[in-house]
Amino acid sequence: MKECLTDYFAALSNENNSEFNFLDKKIRIEGSADLIVFNGHNGLMDTSIESPNNVHTSAKDAIEVACVSFEYFEEYYQQVNAYPLLNTKNLLAPEAYILENVFDAWENLKDEEAIHHAAGSAYNQYQKCGLRGAKRLFQSGW
Q1: Burial class (CB in 10 A: 0-12, 13-18, 19+), 46
Q2: Torsion angles phi and psi, residue 83, rounded to 5
Q3: Are β-strands 17-22 and 138-139 bridged in parallel, bridged antiparallel, or unpaired?
Q4: Higher pLDDT, 72 or 25
């Protein structure tokens, strides 16, 4: 988990820049990507990591879907100049189906409110907890 979190913040700080060839097209990954996502257990609840060395000059969009993520990730985001596009405020099932809706909204240049709604809508679809309750699990921005 520590290595995964270190890699996540390294990508946000632009430490690792890579490209991936897919169907004769170069896809920017790691620190080269415009959007960096962490999905899974909030390992910062259990451990801490060293701060990344680099600070990206322009803020990258960051998403993390993990239990109570914002209060744990906020300090690191400030250190690497990342913008918390979507994060969580409570315990939840950090499952990947949330990201499909969020990616569609982000790719279509939707605003933060639409991205927030997309996450809540997907969560409600699978967890059947009510849209209002599902949306309360997420937040966008500072």
Answers
A1: exposed
A2: -100, 120
A3: unpaired
A4: 72
Helix axes 69-80, 2-12, angle to 10 degrees: 40
pTM here?
A: 0.87
Q: List, as one string, the DSSP characters of 40-88.
A: S--GGGT---PPPS---SSPEEEEEESTTHHHHHHHHHHHHTEEEEEEE
Is residue 27 within a helix (H) or strand (E), and if so which, with residue range? strand 25-30
Residue 13: strand, helix, or coil: coil
How far is Cα 101 from Cα 123, in angstroms, rounded to an integer?
10
Buried b (16+ CB within 10 A) or exposed e, 20-39: eeeeeeeeeebbebeebbbe
Summarised one tens digit per residue, pLDDT across range 83-121 is: 999 999 999 999 999 999 999 999 999 999 999 999 999
Q: Check residue 20 and give its pLDDT.
A: 81
β-bridge mates for residue 64, sequence order = 38
For residue 85, which amino acid is it?
L
For residue 26, pLDDT over 70 is answered with: yes
3-to-8, 69, 122 alpha-carbon distances in Å: 9, 17, 29
